[in-house]
Design a protein that fits this description.
By secondary structure, this protein is mainly beta. It has three helices and 16 strands. It has helices at about 1-20, 140, 155-160, and strands at about 20-25, 40-50, 60-70, 75-85, 90-100, 105-115, 115-125, 125-130, 145, 150-155, 170-180, 185-200, 205-215, 220-225, 235-240, 245-250. This is DUF3108 domain-containing protein.
Amino acid sequence: MKHLLFTICIFAYSFTTSTAQVDTINTSNGKLNLAALQEGKRTYAVFFEDSLTGNRLTTADLWDRTIRFSTTPTGQKTYQFGWKWYQKDSLLADVTATGILSSLAPLTHNATYTKRGIRNFVFNGTTVTIPPASRRTARDSAFNVVMNPPAFEFPMDLEILPLLPFKKVGQEFAIAFYEPGSPASDYYRLTVTGREDLVMGGNAKINCWLLTIDYGQSDAHATFWISDQNREVVKMREYFRGRYRYKVKLY
């Protein structure tokens, strides 16, 4: 009997220890390294390859992404996020979002998509609604989502993931994201899977953390190369339905 109790205790301790290794991160617990968030513009080339042959499947789109800081008349420090998605000579998406700088909690999300139209949302704490001026249907008026967990805006993943508190290979995080317009926020599991020197143009090497995200689907996952010095995503490779999507920082 004593042996059985001892075994149960050891199992419970091991389970608790392994669970505690996952660092839960959301907009309310202040665990991101916000000092690493820098103002500026970054441009990424985005393209697809066949996962088996390595053949390029598309020409590259361009993503221009910007971060700016400002202060409201009441003294609150905020950020403004911008994302412009170009395909050849066309602007496919133009997204602007704002939020509270001290937590990265979102405040507004305004987006214009060539195929999806205008999608605007406003955040009041953890409650998400469509602003009155943007309501076109009864469904728009009824839209009301309470983010549980309190979450970061998913379109800002390239800017937010580099702010994780990297310490060692093997770290695990659960980070809360919300895709504006979706019915709920959720945690996504991330693992620091390695470190390596990524060779860039001119044989320059950038020491990077390798961060893998689990999207909760068996056929969808991605790895981010995040520079240790500048804390920015310099490369991403995402697998989905037999294809790789790459995002590569140009400048």
